[in-house]
Here is the input.
Amino acid sequence: KDAHHANTWSPVHLVQDLATYDETALDATKRTQLHRARKSMTIVQITDPDLLREQGWRAYEDKMTRVGLSHAMVGRDTYNKNADWFATDDRRLILGTIRGDDLVGYIETFAVDGVAYLNDIWVSNEALPLNASALLYYASSQVYRAAGVGKLCAGVPEVGRTGISDFKIRMGIPVVRIP
Here is the structure.
């Protein structure tokens, strides 16, 4: 409400009207990839930490290594404690992608005051070419859309990592300036 007083802005990946966000917001390539992903994987809501503890580590480890943060990885015990907390925290929505019997990716999200935040995503190396990331982003958006959440935030563009920002833009989540 005080935005008109701001003297600067921040770039944020934001869908400003989630009620109108559907597959038509995605570029044509992403729509095709999303359809293929749906054929090879199933989306599940994760409410039981056992699945994250038993199968989520691979996606966590792959992502942290892939983005150059293997030095910042928590140990397996800490990961399991975090899995317990994430999966049982009613304020979070955790969706996973299942291929066969395996969890190959998951996303942790939450909503506050009408804005859904796609907080973090972990995808195994094997699931990247299957477009698990696109499927998780889109499925999360549709859960929040159905719940009547008004906006969707996918974070700030990361300096030096334009590929991630390009992915979000192709997913129909543009960079907007917010005061």
Remarks:
- The chain has a mean pLDDT of 93.
- Helices lie at 28-40, 49-66, 76-88, 132-146, 162-170.
